[in-house]
Amino acid sequence: MKVIEVNNLVKKYGDLTAVNNISFSVNEGSICAILGPNGSGKTTTIKSICNLIIPDEGNIKLFGKDNKKSIDNIAALFEGTRNLYWRLTPRENLRYFAGIRGLGGKKIERKIDELLDRFDLEDKKDTVVNNLSRGMRQKVAIAMTLICDTDIIILDEPTLGLDVKSFMEIKNMLRYISNNMKKTVLLSTHDMNLVEEVCEDIIILNRGNIIAQDTIGNLLDMFRSMTYEINLQDTITEEQKEYLSNLENEFYLINDGEALEIDILDSKDIYKIIDILKVKNILIKEVKQKNINFERVYLNLTSGEGK
Ligand SMILES: Nc1ncnc2c1ncn2[C@@H]1O[C@H](COP(=O)(O)OP(=O)(O)OP(=O)(O)O)[C@@H](O)[C@H]1O
User: In this predicted model, what pLDDT tens digit does every residue of 5-63 receive, in sequence order?
Assistant: First the structure.
C-alpha cells in the first residue's frame, strides 16, 4: 500500500525552482531515503509532505487522503536534536511531547518506559539532555517521534555527526522501527552507509528533479554491470598512463597501476575498450565485473556533484 504519494510537486522561490514537478510514492513499512547534493530540494520535499511548506503545484496524499487533513499521522524530526528541551530529562521530554498532542496518563507513562528501555536509554532517563552524549541525544530525539504512535516517521539527517557506535545504534533503531513497530520511515541523508545498510527504496534528487527512483538492490545491480576491473599483465608505464588520460573514457588506475577500472554504459563496449588498450600494448590478464558500493552509484548518478 502507498502510504505517502507525492504528485507533480512544484515549489519555486522567486526565479529558483527548488522542486520541479516531482512524483513518487513510499510503500507501507519501508524505509525510503531521499538523497541528493546540497540544495537539490530534499528539505523542501520533506517539509512539503509535513505541510510545513505550501507547494505551488501538485498534491501530497497520506494513506490516500490529502496531507493537510491527515498530518496527525506524521511525526517528524528536523535539524538533528532541535525537538529536545536540553534542561529536561529524556523521560520529561517524551512526556512533554506526548502532552502537546493531548496524550498523557498511565498508558503514555508505560510507553515512555518501553521506549527508554527498548533503545537503551533506561540508565539515562533522569539525566538532563544537556549532559547526554550526542548519540544519546539523537536516540532520544528519534524516540520522541515514536511516542504518539503515528504510522509515518520522517527524519532529516538522522546520523549527522555521529561516531561509529552511535551510528550502529541509530541504524538498529531504524530497523526496529520499520520491522517491529511496522512504521513507514522517510529520511533524508548524505550518509551512504546508512542508505546501503537500512534503506530499501531510494529517491535521488538533483537540482529539484528526480534522477533515480528504485530499490537499492536494483540500483546496485544496474551499476555493478557497468563497472569493470581490468587486471593487467604488466604495471602500466608513464607513456601508457598519458595515452589513457587523453581518451574519452575515464580509466581509474588501481593497485599501483597493476589494474584499471572503467564504467561503461553498454556491456558490448568492453570489446572496444580491449581494442583501445591494445593500441598501446597494454596487455590484459583478466577482466571482471566489479562489486561496487552505493556511494559509487550515487556519485555516478549525480555526476560527482558532491554529497
Ligand atoms: N526559504 C527559501 N527561500 C529561498 N530559497 C530557498 C528557501 N529554502 C530553500 N531554498 C532554495 O531551494 C533550493 C533547495 O533547497 P533545499 O533546502 O530543499 O535543498 P536540500 O537538498 O535540502 O539541501 P541541503 O542538503 O543543503 O539541506 C536551494 O537552492 C535553496 O537555496
Answer: 999 999 999 999 999 999 999 999 999 999 999 999 999 999 999 999 999 999 999 99
User: Which residue in 234, 227, 213, 306 sits closest to 277, CA to CA?
Assistant: 234
- Quick check: ipTM above 0.95? yes
Q: How far, in Å, CA of 150 to CA of 205, rounded? A: 26
pTM of the model as a whole: 0.82
CA–CA dist 73, 148 (Å, integer): 9
Instruction: Please state the three-class secondary structure of 158-226 as a single string.
Output: CCCCCCHHHHHHHHHHHHHHHHCCCCEEEEECCCHHHHHHHCCEEEEEECCEEEEEEEHHHHHHHHHCC
Q: How far apart are CA 19 and CA 17, in angstroms?
A: 6
Contacts of 255 (CB under 8 A, 6+ apart): none
- Check: CB of residue 261 under 8 Å from CB of residue 227: yes
Of 10, 13, 156, the one to substitute when testing ligand 1's pocket (max ligand atoms within 8 A of C-beta) is 13
Any atom of ligand 1 within 6 Å of the Cβ of 54: no
> How far apart are the two ends of the chain, measured CA to CA in Å?
31
Asked whether 43 lines ligand 1 (CB < 6 A), one says: yes
Residue 9's φ and ψ, nearest 5 degrees, are: -75, 130
DSSP track, 112-151: HHHHHHHTT-GGGTTS-GGGS-HHHHHHHHHHHTTTT--S
Grid cell at residue 195: 542508505
Q: What is the pLDDT of residue 80?
A: 65
* pLDDT tens digit sequence for 54-96: 999 999 999 999 999 988 899 999 876 677 898 999 999 999 9
Q: What distance in angstroms lies between residue 38's CA and the mean position of ligand 1's atoms?
A: 8
Please answer whether residues 118 and 174 qualify as being in contact, where contact means their C-beta atoms are separated by less than 8 angstroms.
Answer: no
